[in-house]
Each structure stands twice: as C-alpha cells, then as structure tokens.
Write a structure and sequence with these properties.
Radius of gyration of chain A: 20 Å
Distance between the termini of chain A: 52 Å
Number of strands of chain A: 4
Number of helices of chain B: 10
Strand order of the largest sheet of chain B: 6-7-8-3-9-10
CATH superfamily of one domain in chain B: P-loop containing nucleotide triphosphate hydrolases
Oligomer: heterodimer
Strand content of chain A: under 5%
CATH class of chain A: Mainly Alpha
Largest sheet of chain B: 6 strands, mixed
Number of domains of chain A: 1
Structural class of chain A: mainly alpha
Structural class of chain B: alpha/beta
Order of helices and strands of chain A: HHHHHEEEHHHHEHHH
Helix content of chain A: over 70%
Strand content of chain B: 25-35%
Distance between the termini of chain B: 36 Å
Shape of chain A: globular
CATH topology of chain A: ABC transporter involved in vitamin B12 uptake, BtuC
Shape of chain B: globular
Number of helices of chain A: 12
CATH class of one domain in chain B: Alpha Beta
Radius of gyration of chain B: 17 Å
Helix content of chain B: 25-40%
Order of helices and strands of chain B: EEEHEEHEHHHHEHEHEEHH
Strand order of the largest sheet of chain A: 1-4
CATH topology of one domain in chain B: Rossmann fold
CATH architecture of chain A: Orthogonal Bundle
CATH architecture of one domain in chain B: 3-Layer(aba) Sandwich
Chain lengths: 305, 240
Amino acid sequence: MDFDLLTSPELLLARIFDGLNAGAVYALVAVALVLIFKATTLINFAQGEMAMFGAFLAYIGWSEWGLPMWIAVVVAMILSALGAAAIERTLIRPFDPSDHLPLVIVTLGLLLIIGAVAGMIWKFDPRPFPELFPSGSAFRLGIANLRWYTVFTLAAAVAMMALLQFLLSRTKIGLAFRAVSSNLESSELVGIRVGPTLQFGWALAAAAGTFGAVIFVADPVRQIEPSIMLSVLIFASAAAALGGLDSLWGALVGGLIVGQVQTLLVNVFTFIPNEMALAAAVFVLLVVLVAKPSGLFGTARVERV
Amino acid sequence: MSSPLLEAAGVKAAYGQVNVLHGVDFSVNEGEVVVILGANGAGKTTTLRSISAMRLVTVEGSIKVAGTETVGKNPADVVRMGVAHVPQGRGTFPELSVEDNLHSGAYVVKDRSQIHKDIDRYFDMFPVLRERRDQLAGSLSGGEQQMLAVSRALMSRPRLLLLDEPSLGLAPLIVEQLFETLAEINRDTGMTMLVVEQNAQLALSIADRAYVLEAGQIVLSGEAEAMKTDEAVRQAYLGY
C-alpha cells in the first residue's frame, strides 16, 4: 500500500483532482442514461455509442464544414436528437413498451451497429479535437493541479442537471415522462401519447449524450476515435446505478464518487494493478447496491395495495 | 329522445386468440349511471377496455361516444372525446406525488386556472388528499388511492366516466362512502357513468339501469329498481 498518499496532502489533492476530472465526465454521460431511464424505464446500452457518433458529427461540422466549434456542437446535438427520434420510431416503437427484454436486445444491437458504422466511416485512428475550454490551471498547489477543463466540465454537468431537473419536475412534457415511466397504461388513460413522448425522451437523451461526449473528447489529453465511449459508458452506468437510476442529482454524485474511487483505489492500494481499476470501481458499486438496492438517491419502489 | 352518449353495437373483443366478448349491445344516456354486473371472467373489464381502445384488446363492432367511433382509435384519442377511465386496481402513478397525479389527469386540459380550481375542488371533496398532496401516491392506502384515481379521472372534465370495480379491495365503510360520493357527483353535475362492479347491491343502489354480463354476452338488462327484485339477479349477484 502507498501510504505516502495518505501522509502527503499535496499528493492526495492531486489524486482527488484527477478523480474529479474523471468523475465530472462520468456524471455528464450518466445524466443521459438517467434521463432515458426516467423517460422510458429503459437502459439504453447504445447511449455511449450514440454520443460518440454525435461527437464525431460535431468534429465533422468543425473540421469539414468549417463551422465555429460551439455552433458545430449545437448542430451535432440537433442532428443526434433527430437521429435518435428516427431510431425510436423505426426500431423501438414497433415493440411493446412494457416488455423490456426485446428492447434491451435492440439497444445492444444498436451499440454494435453504431460502433461498426462509425469505425467504417472514420476508421480507428485518433484525431485531435479542438479545445472548448481555456487550457491551463485554475488552482495549483505543488503537484496538485486543478485544470480549467475540470472546472468547466463540472459546471457543464451541474448546468445540464439543473436544466433537465427543471424540465422533468416543472413542465408538462416532464410530467408526461414521469407518468409514462410510472404506469404506461394509466398514462394513456389520461391522454398522454406514449409513442411521441418516448420519442422526445430519446431525442433529448441523445442531445444530452452528444453534449457529454463532446466535452469528454474536448479534454486536450484525449483524441476522438470510435471506441472512445466504451469504457466511459461502463463507468457512467456504474455512476448512474450508484446514484439511483432515476435520480439526476444521483447521477452527478455517483459520477463524482466513481471518479474518486477509480483514482484513489488504485493509488492507495497499489497492489491493485491499473488494469483492475475498472473492476475495482464496479466492485465498490456492487457493495453499495447490496446495501442499498435503489442506489444512493434513487426512489425505492414502495407501494401499498 | 336524443341518441345515447355511449352506444355499443355488436361488440366482439379478444385478447389474441381468446375471445372474451361475443357481440354485446349496450348504451348509456347522457346523465345516467349504468352498471354492468357479472361474475369474474364475464368480460366486464374487457368491456371498459374496449371502450377506451386500450392496448392488447382487439375490438370488432361499433362503439360510439357522442356519435364518434372509438374502435380503431387509441386511448389518448378516446380521452379527448371526453371519456375518463378509472382502471381496475386504480392505476395511480405510485412514483408521483398526489398533486402531480391530479395534474396528469388534466393532461388534455389547456386552461390552467380550471386545473387549479378543479384540484381545489377534489381536495375539498377528499380532504385527506389535500393533507397528502406532496406525498407519493404509492404511499397512500387503498381507499385514498381510489379517491385519487376518481379525482384524477374527473380532472379531465369528462362527459363519460368509466369505473372498473371501484370497490375492489376496499373496506366496506370506505366503499359505501365512495359510492355516496359518486352518486353525489352524478346528482350535482349530471356526470354520466358506466360502472363495472361485483358488489351488485351497492352498484344498483346508485344506478339508473343495469346490464348483466355472462360469459361475454348480455343476458339481462333493465331498470336498476327492477333488477333488485329480479329473482335471477338476486340469486346470482345479491345473494338472498
């Protein structure tokens, strides 16, 4: 074990900043997962790949169509929302929305198809993505360095969360989302058009996912390539489950915790090889879920009859 | 006499290959309370589900609400025709607060001031719902949930209220209160109701007319008063 870490505040802070950086990204992607779960009670396994595709669209918009970067991001978010709406209409709507297994298989299929298509178009060589945020350091203490990128990523995650939270709790479409995921049959009986509601949920989650992926690849230490979201999606799923799949703020907190666990675990317990960081993080997740199956902030489904 | 608000003719309904209704005719006039009696599996719930064009039921024949066909439509369309449906088992949204449940009932209503006025009205009618307005519906007792389900249905200001076994699983005292309230609503607002019920005595006490459904066919129909004294109904459904 590396106890230096526990005795040197500087080193510990450095690790915490690393974790914050990773965690903010997980939170951003986890929000998209939670959003689609809240709107459809479905886990969309293709969420990460859809987000990757969206980030590529932003990249193309910037590098090939010559759009200013932020405009390219907005265009990519709109395009991925439209794409997701089309996917919902053609591949999801034909299935009974109350029967989840076929739908989960469809999203797994989508994961493979989107990944393959992106690999075909863009090949697997990484390309540098333009920076979205000022580079450099916001706060520095010895070797501990809090980058502006981390600060902005966290701010973006919080802003997105607040916006979506408002949408879900204060708007009519938000009420429709919550009603549909609570009781499909009853939502139809109050006049909610379930198909279009779910379609809007898909579109919204895709736009949010694209935003998250763009921010992820905009980190100067990363480059964009088709497999970039695979491991992020696993961490983000862990974050979403940890926070309680139906809680947006839970996704934020879950993301930050998973980020910390991932970096601290392998740095404190140095006998855990770096390659096992993922497994270690998932193990922590398991322990939490055994103690609290609905996650840290999730609603336990309680129902008196 | 004007044509009935709800008119069903030759309705056949099936779940997949299983035929449940074998051609039933019935009607409900504006302002009436009509009850459908029948044993388990007679097709009472299916009748209501057919009217609301709900999922999984294939319907043949004709069901008209104020002259507009519901067969082949979807539930969201039927709601917009002025039909509200309190499903069996109440169908509240357990993860939503009591107040949000009521808001969802007014999904097709555009006038916000009407929504708030109506919420107040049902809070007055069922004070326990006001006390629990921020509580999740799933935490309410069965009786409270039924009050919420009825209020939610009324939030859309329907012309026709469908109630599927409102007494199911409730304590006798609560059931009596509920039927009193339903009778009051009918008396005060002239709300048309079609009630499916196993508790025949109570249902007949608030109904104008009744149909008896047996194995997917209507075997008897008439004035509620006459039904109460009918020998066959008494033996089969009233138990004396």
